[in-house]
Design goal:
199 residues; mainly alpha; 7 helices
Length: 199
């Protein structure tokens, strides 16, 4: 089995290509865009820009990657990509509904939303231990990001800012794992190492 296939625990003889790099890239780009806003490096009004990629790339495309992972019998990949695709669509709709006045966006509501996803991320993080170092890094940083953003909803602005920087690190780790899946596959050798499977 190639290094690329080891990233996602897939069967190389499958009739469809590996959706892992696509799902990771979609997750990384959307996470990066929102996290830059959360750091305060750009004006908060730029947050509205996240709606389009959250609906299309981070949302719909990532859900498609998750459905392809179902085809490959990869329970971790299908659960992760489908769920985080739904996360981004839900987040985009939350922003839109608040802007349109359908709901009231509050720290409590945002906190409840984030804490729910923190719980999910926590056990996915544990699951990543059985895969490889690249995914462990992604989920470790993602869990840290969620925890910091959870604290940030309690009017702790420093935690919110730190959560933004942790989110940027998460995005970079996910982009690395995506790049490894692509480059290791097309060059038929290890260009970017992802670490051995954990036993």
């Amino acid at each position: 089995m190639s290094e690329s296939a080891k990233v996602y625990n897939i069967n190389e003889n499958s009739a469809i290509s590996d959706p892992g790099p696509l799902g990771l890239a979609a997750f990384a780009l959307t996470t990066f865009c929102l996290s830059v806003v959360n750091t305060g490096l750009v004006p908060g009004k730029v947050e509205g820009m996240i709606i389009a990629p959250a609906l299309v790339y981070g949302g719909a495309v990532q859900i498609l990657a998750g459905l392809w992972e179902f085809k490959k019998n990869n329970v971790f990949g299908c659960t992760a990509f489908s769920s985080f695709g739904a996360f981004w669509i839900s987040f985009a709709l939350y922003l839109l509904f608040a802007e349109w006045g359908f709901i009231e966006a509050s720290s409590f509501a945002t906190g409840l939303f984030l804490i729910s996803w923190t719980i999910f991320t926590a056990y996915m993080w544990i699951g990543s231990f059985a895969l490889n170092n690249a995914l462990v890094a992604v989920f470790t940083l993602l869990l840290l990001t969620f925890i910091l953003l959870d604290i940030g909803t309690m009017n702790v602005s420093f935690a919110h800012t730190c959560g933004g920087y942790a989110g940027i690190a998460t995005a970079l780790a996910a982009w690395y794992a995506s790049a490894a899946g692509i480059l290791n596959s097309v060059y038929k050798k290890t260009v970017l190492p992802i670490g051995q499977k954990h036993k």
